[in-house]
Structures are given as structure tokens and as C-alpha cells.
Amino acid sequence: MNDNQHSTELGDAQNRDVDRFDDPGLPEHRHRRADSDPAADKRAERQVVILFLISIIGTVASIVAYFVFRPDGTTDGVRISTLSLGLGMAFALLGIGLAAVHWAKTLMNDTEVTEERHEQRTPDAEREIAVQKLSDGAADSGIARRGVLKGAALSALAIFPLTIAVPLVSSVGGDWNVSKFRHTRWDKGTRLAIDPTGRLIKAADVTIGSVFHVIPDATEEERESHAWITEKAKAVVLVVRLDPRDLKEAEDRKDWSHDGIVAYSKICTHVGCPVALYEQQTHHLLCPCHQSTFDIADGAKVVFGPAKRPLPQLPISVDDEGYLVAKSDFHEPVGPSYWERLK
């Protein structure tokens, strides 16, 4: 007997064994206390209502927090504002979620139902039956005869979008000065500092193949301010040192680097993700969000991905003490394109 015959006979034997087992059916249904005790049923309904009320309170608290805890220009102010908004929205969503689960587990019918599988396209008559079952399910949920619960559920669901809509609407007419994207904190003579410690960098610290995440030098007081957070987001830079022989520099940018050290914006020109994955052998810089790839050795030009323009280069040199300094701000806007910049 060959292997194929043996496998076939073994499969037939297994199928015969399966045919010998009777369908065990569903286990005995265990009734919940709320199914037979009106007091327990009423108590479960009150619990669901309370959960929806928690959601409503969370929504109201989120809106109040938005207006009361406005950022005051400090890091602590931003932290408190974000925390209060987040807690309000968390209770708003948590209340709705827990109420829906508790409603389904305690008040809705939990009788097990089985149906045989059919072809995907069922006859029209069975479709009508399915629609009727949906109607029966809605009736079984008891929402029609539980007025308080229905009111709490609808109220929680109706006002929750306000946690998102109020901040959005209140921001209309805000600061739309896009010229801010054209300038950063970098200026002539600004020293390069390691992010986030703020330690200054000397050219001698940067060896071939090494990478530094860099921000403009600033005082400790400046780094604690809310304004600094905004400015830092635009000014983050990646510093890399290559063998000068590997650099392909345009004639008008030959003095933008120092002995193979180049500095480019970390903000991807696609949608603004942080570009920070450097491949030493190819000199390629990868954006982890959408895989845009830039060639650091060739002006950070795009070699792959959806980005449409190179990363802006920061002109650098060294000062009398050997520290790396900026020669100017970026010569073009950083980050992705916007309506005043199509490329």
C-alpha cells in the first residue's frame, strides 16, 4: 500500500468516526437574575442610566476644561490643559462604552441561537425574515419602553461630539499666518545643541558616520516655555558627517557644510513626520511614516517615496571655539507643502 492510499483510507475512517457523534446541541440556558426578578431588572437599568450620565458629565467637563484650563505659555500650562481635556473625553467615551456593554449583558436577550449556514445570497423571503429579526431585536432591547434609559443614551451620544466640535469651532478665525513656516529659530551664529539635553556640539565631536539630533541653543528658561515647544518643532535638525569625497554639493552650497558635516531639517517634506532613520552605507535618510527616502550625500534629494522636494539644508560653519554654528536660517520653508507652497 502506498502513502496516498493509506492517507485516503485514514481520511475516510476519520470521516466515519465524525458521523458517529451526535450533535450535542446548546448547553442549558442559564437565566440571569434580571430575567425573573423585576427589582434586579430595574436596578440594572438604573446602572446603565448612571453610566450614560457619567458620559454626559465627562462631555460637559471636557468642554468646561477647554475654556478654563487654557495654555498660559508654560509647559505646565500645556500639560494641565491636555490632561483635563483628555480626562473629560475619557470619561465621556468610557461611560458610553460601559453602558452599552452592561445594557447588552443584563437587559437584552441572551438566549443562544443557532442557524444553519446558507449561500451568501438568500431568498427574498428570508431577507424579510432577517429584517423582522432586527426589528424584534430592537423591541427586545426594551428601548421603546425604557424612557429614562433611552433619554440618557440619546443624550450621551448626542452631546459627545461637542468634545471635538467645540475646540474646532472656537479655533476658527485663529492664527492663520502661514509666513511663520518660512522662518525658524536658527540665525547667524546660533550654536547647534543636542536634543534634548541642550549640550553644545563641537565639530571635533562629530565623527564620520555619526548622527546628531540637533536644536538651536537656548537658555533653560526658554526651553521651558510653550513658545519654545512650537519653535523647536520647526527647527529640529539632523547633523551627519560624511567623507567629504562622498558629498555632491551644488556650487552655491559648497560653503554650507564643514569638512563633510551637513545639517538638514528633520521634518519630512511629505506630511511632516520626523525623518531620523539613517543608513550609513548608502547615506540614505528614511522617513518611517511613508518611506520617503532622501540622499544626504546629494543635497537630501528624494530617491524614493511620496515626498516631492529635498529636505531643506541648514548652512553651518564653526566659530572661534570650534563649536558648530548656523550661518543663517533655512533658505526655504521647512516641512510639507501648503497652499502658498505647491512644491
UniProtKB/TrEMBL annotation:
<feature type="transmembrane region" description="Helical">
    <location>
        <begin position="48"/>
        <end position="68"/>
    </location>
</feature>
<dbReference type="InterPro" id="IPR014349">
    <property type="entry name" value="Rieske_Fe-S_prot"/>
</dbReference>
<keyword id="KW-0813">Transport</keyword>
<feature type="transmembrane region" description="Helical">
    <location>
        <begin position="80"/>
        <end position="101"/>
    </location>
</feature>
<keyword id="KW-0411">Iron-sulfur</keyword>
<keyword id="KW-1015">Disulfide bond</keyword>
<keyword id="KW-0001">2Fe-2S</keyword>
<dbReference type="GO" id="GO:0051537">
    <property type="term" value="F:2 iron, 2 sulfur cluster binding"/>
</dbReference>
<dbReference type="GO" id="GO:0005886">
    <property type="term" value="C:plasma membrane"/>
</dbReference>
<protein>
    <recommendedName>
        <fullName>Cytochrome bc1 complex Rieske iron-sulfur subunit</fullName>
    </recommendedName>
</protein>
<keyword id="KW-0472">Membrane</keyword>
<feature type="transmembrane region" description="Helical">
    <location>
        <begin position="151"/>
        <end position="170"/>
    </location>
</feature>
<keyword id="KW-0408">Iron</keyword>
<comment type="function">
    <text>Iron-sulfur subunit of the cytochrome bc1 complex, an essential component of the respiratory electron transport chain required for ATP synthesis. The bc1 complex catalyzes the oxidation of menaquinol and the reduction of cytochrome c in the respiratory chain. The bc1 complex operates through a Q-cycle mechanism that couples electron transfer to generation of the proton gradient that drives ATP synthesis.</text>
</comment>
<feature type="region of interest" description="Disordered">
    <location>
        <begin position="1"/>
        <end position="40"/>
    </location>
</feature>
<keyword id="KW-0479">Metal-binding</keyword>
<dbReference type="GO" id="GO:0004497">
    <property type="term" value="F:monooxygenase activity"/>
</dbReference>
<dbReference type="Pfam" id="PF19297">
    <property type="entry name" value="QcrA_N"/>
</dbReference>
<dbReference type="InterPro" id="IPR045603">
    <property type="entry name" value="QcrA_N"/>
</dbReference>
<dbReference type="GO" id="GO:0046872">
    <property type="term" value="F:metal ion binding"/>
</dbReference>
<feature type="domain" description="Rieske">
    <location>
        <begin position="234"/>
        <end position="325"/>
    </location>
</feature>
<keyword id="KW-0812">Transmembrane</keyword>
<keyword id="KW-1133">Transmembrane helix</keyword>
<dbReference type="InterPro" id="IPR005805">
    <property type="entry name" value="Rieske_Fe-S_prot_C"/>
</dbReference>
<keyword id="KW-0249">Electron transport</keyword>
<dbReference type="GO" id="GO:0016705">
    <property type="term" value="F:oxidoreductase activity, acting on paired donors, with incorporation or reduction of molecular oxygen"/>
</dbReference>
<feature type="compositionally biased region" description="Basic and acidic residues">
    <location>
        <begin position="14"/>
        <end position="40"/>
    </location>
</feature>
<dbReference type="InterPro" id="IPR017941">
    <property type="entry name" value="Rieske_2Fe-2S"/>
</dbReference>
<comment type="similarity">
    <text>Belongs to the Rieske iron-sulfur protein family.</text>
</comment>
<keyword id="KW-0679">Respiratory chain</keyword>
<keyword id="KW-0560">Oxidoreductase</keyword>
<dbReference type="InterPro" id="IPR036922">
    <property type="entry name" value="Rieske_2Fe-2S_sf"/>
</dbReference>
<dbReference type="Pfam" id="PF00355">
    <property type="entry name" value="Rieske"/>
</dbReference>
<keyword id="KW-1003">Cell membrane</keyword>
